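ok so for the tutorial part 2 we go from a plain amino acid sequence to predicted structure tokens. step 1 is just haveing the sequence, like this:
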Amino acid sequence: MNDDDPKPARGRPRTMNADKVLDVAMTAYWQSDPADVSVNAICQLAGISKPSLYREFGSEDGLSRAALDRYAEQVLSEMFVLLHSGTGLRETLAALIDFASDDPRMETGCLFYKMRAGKHRLGPETRARVEEIDAAAQGAYAAFLQAARDAGEWPAGLSVEAGANYLGEQIALAITQRASGEDPARIREMLTLALSALTRS
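step 2 — the prediction. this is what the tokens look like for a chain of 201 residues:
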């Protein structure tokens, strides 16, 4: 070998596409019960080895935490945008109803709500992230209702905290019903009725 020959690369070549693996993991968790999706299944779907996955994400918990972050960026962020849109109480509630009852991505439910419901089966990193997102969502719902109150659209005698919790749980219920195969038209009707409690003066 002379000096002009290419030198062999040190270590194992890095061929894993982390973004692809995250998309595969997010979809797999989203379409099933996240705690029932094994690392082996994700490796098979993504076409990678388990050591490669662990080198990138550290652990199964690290992978599920990263997949939840990806979901928050791509999907949950849209709900936060709606809540901070400043378009008014009725208009924002109508947009939330559209999201929960009509968005085709919600046909398999919401990955965040699935993880929240089964967080006792998740690793500590993912569980902590679920709790962070839950608190952020509660805060966003509360800020939305407080803004509606400041604009004279929501009565002063009602608890913002209780209203925020009610709103969040009604949205969660509607999306969970989507995953169970309920008719979207019926879900829209029931969610509209439930959220009408927030528009009564």
